[in-house]
Design brief:
Elements: E1 8-14, H1 18-28, H2 42-48, E2 59-67, H3 68-74, E3 80-84, H4 109-129, H5 134-137, E4 146-154, H6 155-165, H7 172-188, H8 190-193
Antiparallel strand pairs: 1-2, 2-4, 3-4
Helix pairs in contact: 6-7
The protein binds flavin-adenine dinucleotide.
Length: 196
């Protein structure tokens, strides 16, 4: 299923030397800091027993592009910082929206969908022409509207999001985002994300 929604997930920043920082914070608890870096699965062993607070010391910032339906779900994750392109101050003049791949499995759905999008944007432009501000005209725009958001999460919250959202129970588009987050974090911090 991956890639069908065409979400864009890019890592913008990450705590430098994150795994060393996490391990030395964990080792402080036992006063064994001189052993930092000597046991490859040390962090995973702590995570297995639920000793997780030390992974909160590292965080990562991502730029994510997808539908407003998807970001509405993403921002429910509260232990985070978010900055999202505003529909109040930025005009959504381009008809730029996500078309779910599931439409193709239902006779006639693709046409119905694109027709509805075209009407929504036509109404948007007409409302702007009437002199309404984008913050009011946007009420006619659909959930599918493309948006961009910058998200900062600590590693504990990132693990939580991946666990909840990279499963078949999740909305397919946010699942695609979670799978990308998982792949990036497995590569950048394998000792913390190896089990996911
Ligand atoms: C498959 C699926 C279906 C969903 N369906 C719906 C739905 O129909 N309607 C709906 O409204 N939402 C729905 N949600 C959203 C869900 O209820 C959560 O709001 C969302 O997953 C955010 O995650 P979270 O609450 O675990 O915590 P986050 O905000 O990510 O916080 C991480 C953890 O911190 C702790 N925490 C954070 N804030 C508090 C707090 N105030 N009190 C105590 N502990 C806290 C909790 O342990 C929490 O798990 C759905 C989520 C999923 C994955």
């Amino acid at each position: 299923m991956s890639d069908e929604y065409g979400v864009d997930v890019r890592l913008l920043a990450i705590t430098p030397d994150a795994e060393r920082l996490i391990e030395s914070a964990g080792r402080l608890c036992w006063n064994t800091q001189e052993k930092t870096g000597t046991v490859p699965d040390r962090i995973q062993a702590w995570l297995e027993i639920g000793h997780e607070s030390m992974i909160e010391h590292a965080c990562a910032t991502f730029s994510i592009r997808g539908s407003r339906a998807m970001t509405h779900e993403l921002v429910r994750h509260r232990l985070a910082s978010y900055s999202q392109r505003s529909q109040r101050y930025v005009r959504e003049s381009d008809e730029s929206y996500v078309a779910p791949p599931e439409l193709a499995g239902c006779d006639g759905a693709v046409d119905v969908y694109h027709h509805a999008m075209s009407h929504a944007w036509q109404a948007y432009r007409e409302l702007l022409k009437c002199g309404l501000k984008p913050e009011i005209a946007r009420y006619v725009l659909p959930n599918s509207c493309y948006t961009e958001i910058i998200c900062t999460w600590n590693f504990r919250e990132l693990r939580h999001i991946i666990r909840l959202r990279a499963t078949p129970r999740a909305l397919p588009e946010i699942r695609e985002v979670a799978l990308r987050l998982r792949d990036i974090m497995k590569e950048r911090a394998p000792q913390v994300f190896a089990d996911l």
